[in-house]
Amino acid sequence: MEFFDNLPAMDLMRSEKMTFVQLIIPFESAHRAITYLGELGLLQFRDLNADRSPFQRTFVNQVKRCGEMSRKLRFFKDQISKAGLVSSLHSATQPDVELEELEIQLAEHEHELNEMNGNSEKLRQAYNELLEFKMVLQKAGGFLVSGKSPVVVEDRELDENIHSNGDYTDTASLLEKEMRPETMEQSRVRFISGIICKSKVQIFERMLFRATRGNMLFNQAPADEDIVDPVTSEMVEKIVFVVFFSGEQARMKILKICEAFGANCYPVPEDIAKQRQISQEVLSRLSEIETTLDAGYNHRNKALSSIQFHLNKWMSMVRREKAIYDTLNMLNFDVTKKCLVGEGWCPIFAKAKIQEALQRATYDSNSQVGIIFHEMDAPESPPTFFRTNRFTSAFQEIVDAYGVAGYQEANPAVYTVVTFPFLFAVMFGDWGHGICLLLGALVLIAQERKLTGQKLGSFMEMLFGGRYVLLLMSLFSIYCGLIYNEFFSVPFYIFGGSAYKCRDASCSDAHSVGLIKYQDPYPFGVDPRWRGSRSELPFLNSLKMKMSILLGVVQMNLGIILSYFNARFFKSSLDIRFQFVPQMIFLNSLFGYLSLLIVIKWCTGSQADLYHVMIYMFLSPTDDLGENQLFWGQKPLQIILLLLALIAVPWMLFPKPFILKKLHSERFQGRTYQMLGTSEMDIDVDTEPDSARQHHEEFNFSEVFVHQMIHSIEFVLGAVSNTASYLRLWALSLAHSELSTVFYEKVLLLAWGYDNLIVRLVGLAVFAFATAFILLMMETLSAFLHALRLHWVEFQNKFYHGDGYKFRPFSFSLLTEEED
Q1: What is the pLDDT of residue 449?
Q2: Greater confidence, 104 or 183?
Q3: What's residue 696's pLDDT?
Q4: Is the Cβ–Cβ distance between 130 and 282 less than 8 Å?
């Protein structure tokens, strides 16, 4: 075991060693010290004011000021996007400004923009009113010229059909009585003209009809131009209308309805000469306002362009300042109110860098008192920090999605880098499809520098983040595809000739009659002659099913071995003796033995039925194996392995809880006797170990026993179910292969059988579509999710607890725009 202890430490195998530190910072150098630490990004602060609300903290006013500046900057950004200005890729090289100066500048810019927006809105409203008036004059003038005859006809019908009726005075409504013409003045037909949104026209007309009891004539025509809404800056379709009516009461009702529906009414004279004169005045006024509006927009765009030139730098500065004050709010004042006290975690390798940054902060702030930086006892478990690069970060994210590793716990990502893409490829094995995935991965990697800083959609962001995962998945898919000898489901004679030939030299239907072996096996992968033979499916099923079991048993054994290294690292001999050893014995007595039988059967070419061997190993272990015997001494070996598996179950279940109870009682009994000759202070400080100081919980034997029982039952049942779960490698590989075959034979070859170019092109298009969207997208996602499940459940549950929390240092590089 000394060999393993002397091996150099791996960066990814165990998380970085952390230390808990305390900082005592003079008030005058606090801001600069936090700034330098944020640039370094290697210290995670602990919130010492967690019991206080955000409004009770020391620097709440500064945080509010930064929040207000962020609001103004978002307002500028929104105004720039509305104006359609192209965002500048390079920020200004303006000298650094103080926060107070920036606050004054932003307030001035906001006041200026609000004033310009207000003036522009008023001018736009006046312009819209004149534009509407012009369109009403044009359309309503036509209604007035053509509308006189219908009014006369309507009045005549009213007189003939209603007023000639003798019972009219008894049955007419009050509205109709009021509208009855008694004098020439009252009976004169009047009109109201205006303009309304197109979406409200039908309801507006119906409301007018009901309010006037049908005694009105409603004419409408679409406006020639859309009107710009001054608030939303959207184009709105309008309808010009003219309502003919009679009576003062009807006029009042119509005006109220127009006001309720937001319709703008404009007076239109009946005299054509006056209409022309007013139209000319409106047109001249429109041109004046349009000129003023253009000048205002140009001035506003110049102001926005000058803001845009500095916007990115200002936003970054405000974001950093807000983060600094949020961090300062996590610190406490000391008793003298002259220093700030902070606590946090940092990696041990970063201590020198942090001390150097704090010394620079003291020097640059001209402080007479230096910053005190020292280590302390940890009040809690340290955070987990792995140093990853752009290649390993995606694999680490896959593991962290299940749960962050505990401090110094063995990291599955080391093995996931290889095992995850390999298990994916076992299910996806086709070197044609693998080449397609490889091309996609290479395109993403080639565009890496260009796409790194850009905002991508959720799907593209996920794909770009996993570009190196995709690269390894494609390479392993090409490798497994060469083993399966499948290129879009078509086998090729890449590594020489087949080892099989027809049973009869003149036979032409060898795929149905059968094949015989006449030379050495095919050098690499599956012999292409198996394709189309009657034994193709049984052969591939047997091969892939046994291969899945072998891969599953190997990976589960790897997980149990990692649990040994975890126990050895944390110096837990109980876990080695009563967890690792019985688990290895149980798993390999059953499924390790099955894997051995598979390898022996492959090597010897035996016809033994492994199902029968494994079933009767439990039902009748003493029976003679007969033709299913693969090697000498198999029967006594099976009895020994079965007994070992049965012994391993109580070995896992009983000893550990009782030993823990005994150790606990002895330890605390020793402490009670020790208290007789020692002071209370000595016991708390000197004799009590760190683990006891951190965990004062009482030992609950029943809870420990139940937990161990659950863990043992879970492992025993999981050994069976997890091994069966690895059969998904066989099932998905078979499904992928058969789908590829169906698309190739029933689509491409079928279309190619027709002597028609259009049919061939359609068949090629359908084949390409099915390959791209079903085999390359859906099947890739399916295999990815199944490989993910095999790692999370079948592999990681053997050793990985995943109960830690991530190291989140205060770093300016981790700040995002969402934090504004």
Answers
A1: 87
A2: 104
A3: 45
A4: yes
- Name the token pair of 792: 């999370």
Which two structure tokens, joined as six digits, stand for 456?
Answer: 């991508």
Please state the φ and ψ torsions of residue 410, each to the nearest 5 degrees: -60, 135
Q: Is the dihedral of CA 233, 237, 242, 247 positive or negative?
A: negative
Percent of the chain with pLDDT over 70: 86
Spatial distance between the Cα atoms of 194 and 282, rounded to a whole number of angstroms: 16
**Residues of 11-49 as b/e, b for ≥16 C-beta within 10 angstroms?**
ebbbbbebebbebbbbeebbbbbbbbbbebebbbbbebe
Could you tell me which residues come within 8 angstroms of residue 570 by beta carbon, excluding any fewer than 6 positions away? 408
Distance (Å, whole) CA 478 – CA 54: 56
CA distance 295 to 774: 57
CB 703 within 8 A of CB 532: no
Residue with tokens 């054509």: 272
| Structure confidence at residue 95 as a pLDDT band (50, 70, 90) | low
* Burial class of residue 393 in the structure, from the number of CB atoms within 10 Å of its CB (0-12 exposed, 13-18 middle, 19+ buried): middle
pLDDT at 261 over 80: yes
Which range has the worst mean pLDDT, 229-238, 387-396, 781-790? 229-238
CA nearest to 674, candidates 690, 654, 688: 688
> Quick check: 43 and 350 in contact, CB under 8 A?
yes
Cα 226–Cα 227–Cα 229 angle in degrees, nearest 5: 135
Contacts of 486 (CB under 8 A, 6+ apart): 429, 430, 431, 432, 737, 740
In angstroms, the CA 788 to CA 266 distance is: 70
| Residue 97: both structure tokens together | 């400004």
pLDDT at 734 over 60: yes
> Is the predicted pLDDT of residue 112 greater than 50, yes or no?
yes
**HSE (side-chain half, CA atoms, 13 Å) at 182:** 5
Best CA proximity match to 33, nearest among 389, 242, 331, 273 = 331
Please name the residue that has the structure tokens 């962050």.
404
Mean pLDDT value across residues 770-786: 92
pTM, two decimal places: 0.78
Which DSSP string corresponds to 441-509?
A: HHHHHHTHHHHTTS---HHHHHHHHTHHHHHHHHHHHHHHHHHHT-BTTB----SS--SEEESSTT-S-
Q: Are 98 and 314 in contact (CB under 8 A)?
A: no
pLDDT tens string 609-655:
888 889 988 888 888 888 888 888 888 999 999 999 999 999 999 99
CA 618, CA 630: separation in Å to the nearest integer?
A: 18
**Mean pLDDT calculated for residue range 657-676:** 71
Query: 372: part of which helix (H) or strand (E)?
Result: strand 372-376
Per the CB < 8 A criterion, the answer to whether 373 and 763 are in contact is no
Highest mean pLDDT among 134-138, 305-309, 724-728: 724-728
Q: Which helix (H) or strand (E) holds 637?
A: helix 634-653
Q: Tell me the pLDDT tens digit for each residue of 526-579.
A: 888 888 777 788 889 999 999 999 999 999 999 999 999 999 999 999 999 999
- DSSP-derived letter for residue 533 is S
Q: How many C-beta neighbours within 10 Å does residue 610 have?
A: 18
Strand, helix or coil at 336? Answer: coil
What is the DSSP-derived secondary structure letter of residue 811? -
Give me the DSSP letters along 546-605.
Answer: HHHHHHHHHHHHHHHHHHHHHHHHTT-HHHIIIIIHHHHHHHIIIIIHHHHHHHHHHHHT
| Residue closest to 797 by CA, chosen among 559, 554, 591 | 559
Do the Cβ atoms of 635 and 625 come closer than 8 Å?
yes
DSSP 159: I
